[in-house]
Amino acid sequence: MDARHGQEAPTELLVAVRPHTSRHGTPRGRRRQAAPAGRRPGLLLSALLAGGMAAAFFGINGAPEAAAESTSVLEAQQALLAVDEGLEVKPQASITVAEAQARLAEVAASRAARAEAEAAAIEAARPKFVMPIDGARFTSCFCARWGTFHYGIDLAAPMRTPEYAAGDGVVLRAGAAGGYGLAVYILHENGDVTVYGHMDQILVEPGQYVEAGETIALLGNRGQSTGPHLHFEVHQGGEDGERVDPVAWLNERGVEVPGA
Length: 260
Fold this sequence. Notes:
Layout: H1 41-60, H2 64-85, H3 97-125, E1 137-140, E2 143-145, E3 148-150, E4 153-156, E5 162-164, E6 169-176, E7 182-188, E8 193-197, E9 201-202, E10 209-210, E11 215-218, E12 229-236, E13 242-244, H4 246-252
Antiparallel strand pairs: 1-4, 2-3, 4-12, 5-11, 6-7, 6-10, 7-8, 8-12, 9-11, 12-13
Helix pairs in contact: 1-2
Keywords: Membrane, Transmembrane, Transmembrane helix
InterPro entries: Cell_wall_metabolism_enzyme (IPR050570), Dup_hybrid_motif (IPR011055), M23ase_b-sheet_dom (IPR016047)
Protein name: M23ase beta-sheet core domain-containing protein
């Protein structure tokens, strides 16, 4: 009723037509376009995450239709990921802790065996007897000399030339030794003792184990000596055993004495 004119005003029904939308304003019923082939893995991962979050949100807020639609989208995106990237989704590969420990034990055993084999090869290759000095000049034999008997051989070389253990053994004595000035006595496995005299400096001590070729002293001219040299003796069967020709003793063990 129009109060001013006393007439009823025509009634108009205004209807705004718009697409049916979801609670968040997204048109429903619209067909989604398939993602183009070859989309990058980063974009696919973003789509998967977005779909999963939407499904969770709609499910919590009580919109079953929207949740179902989001779940369908997620499934489609997962399929698309597998197709576009040529991947087959599998569970994560793994082994048990016991299997890993067993493998570690195998590796440790293999390394130990390899190290043992290498050590054995090195031991087999090293010489067991050597000349007690390198580059020396043979100056005196195991023979009668100056009205007495010379029970060793003399090997002349420059002062402080390194002197070596002739074979593997243990140092029995090391130090002052009368006419030898300074001397070292080494007991070998077969019971023989080698003697080294007139050195300038001793580098080993009693009880020390030495290998053939290991430096035991520096050559000198101490004691009853007419010049720098090594006086080398061999006592067969022990320190007080019979003194034998060092040249023959070394030759029997594969060592040649130059100039002898």
